Amino acid sequence: MTNAGSKSITPDCTTGAIFAMEGIRNAVVLLNGPMGCRFYHSTTSRFLTIRPLLRLPQEEGGEARPVDYNTLNNWFFRQERVPCTWLDGEDYVYGTREKVLEALAYIRDHVAFDLLAIVNSPGAALIGDALLEPARALLGEKVILLETPGWSASWEDGASAAALQVLKGLKLRKDREVPGRVNLLGVNLWQRYHEGDVLELKRLLALCGVGIGAVLCAGTSVPELERLPEAELNLVVCPELGLDCAKYLEEAWGTPYLCPDLPVGFSASERFVEDVCRRLGKDPAPALEESRRARALAWYKLRDFEQSYGRPRGVKFHVDIGPSADRAYTAFLRDYLAMIPSPAQEAELVFSDANVIAELMLENRTFCGIEARMPSMGYTDLIPKTHLGVNGALFLIEQVLNGLMSKI
Predict the structure, then answer these.
(1) Which CATH architecture has domain 178-285?
(2) How far apart are CA 392 and CA 98, in angstroms?
(3) How far apart are alpha carbons 167 and 207 in whole angstroms?
(4) Domain ranges of the chain
(5) Same fold, 13-51+64-169 and 178-285
(6) Rounded to whole angstroms, how far apart are CA atoms 387 and 265?
(7) pTM (2 decimals)?
(8) What's the pLDDT at 7?
(9) What is the pLDDT of residues 350-398, one digit of tens each?
(10) Percentage of the chain with pLDDT > 70?
(11) Is the dihedral angle over the CA atoms 317, 320, 321, 327 positive or is it negative?
(12) Which run of H or E residues covers position 204?
């Protein structure tokens, strides 16, 4: 629960599980639960990332045609993401199997997909229906089941459990090991700038001759995920989301993993690159030179701002994003910008989600809220942004300076 208040709305394990599965390219997530558990996730999912149109199952020799929006009545309720079994009172008494199989047959006949993930809502999980075998009898091997995302757990717990289930449910293989290739584990659509984060890490590592293979649960296709074991190293971006998966891949396939600090700020980004290059025998110099030039630009802008306004040194700030992110953001804002960590009610800058920021706004306080995780206030990003890496450090400083200017 956030420090901003005792009634904040925070995402739960079901949200984490759904968006982990939604992050797989050309996957369909069927929520086995009531409508009330579905609508928010269906509405939100379409805005988290750009996806291709749904396609009809391709007939032999025919073209793959887009799904007619009017056919998405049953189970989808005229929304493209997260169909639902709309459980009611009778289902909790007599079981959900019949509805689940009806929904699966409809999706099979009307939508083309590479993977279908069934996510039980907490209530459906209590029923204890055996769903995986009949689902695979209907759809084959391209279906996985998350029987329970957990109860009263965080969204990170749900996302981690779902990502692990993906690894166990897919047919992973290793034809060869690709030198200099890493996978990214611990990225999720629910992270505010997940697309920009991945692009920035790819850019920095590419400067050093390191390539990124699969990004688990954040835009990678099923065929690419099946080749996860071919990477030389698994890189855990966020331990709450990816550490369990890294340990599983090490035990099952012998792939070592690295779990560095989240690369927020110049120093953390430089250590991140150095750690990866050290493990892979690569030269970090090109990325470090990139960071040096960015530091020079940041120093120039910060010097002018401090000479004009005497800030950001001494400004009170509050971070409420998640355990590893809280540590990384706080270290950068405190050590590099000389700002002061404070409770949310005393801070001039609050880094969190729209729910926390809106709650603080209702207290009629004068502060600037900077979105650093989902949900957002609805700002539409056309250019990918990031808080990670060298470009992320510059963007974060930009938001700090402009946030302070909005209060002058």
Answers:
(1) 3-Layer(aba) Sandwich (3.40)
(2) 48
(3) 29
(4) 13-51+64-169, 178-285, 295-405
(5) yes
(6) 8
(7) 0.91
(8) 47
(9) 999 999 999 999 988 889 999 999 988 888 888 999 999 999 999 999 9
(10) 96
(11) positive
(12) helix 194-207
Contact at 8 Å (CB) between 64 and 56? Answer: yes
216, 183 in Cβ contact below 8 A?
yes
Q: 129 with 95: CB under 8 angstroms?
A: yes
Which homologous superfamily does the CATH classification assign to the domain defined by 295-405? Nitrogenase molybdenum iron protein domain (3.40.50.1980)
How is residue 314 annotated by DSSP?
A: T
Work out the burial of residue 123: count CB atoms within 10 Å of its CB; fewer than 13 is exposed, 13-18 middle, 19 or more buried.
middle
Rounded to whole angstroms, the Cα distance separating 176 from 197 reads 28
Checking if the pLDDT of 349 tops 60, the result is yes
> What H or E segment, with its residue span, contains residue 179?
strand 178-185
In angstroms, the CA 328 to CA 308 distance is 28
Across 121-134, average pLDDT: 86
Domain 13-51+64-169 classification at class level? alpha beta
Sign of CA pseudo-dihedral 275, 277, 283, 286 = negative
Are the beta carbons of 385 and 402 closer than 8 angstroms? no
Residue 332, φ and ψ in degrees, nearest 5: -70, -50
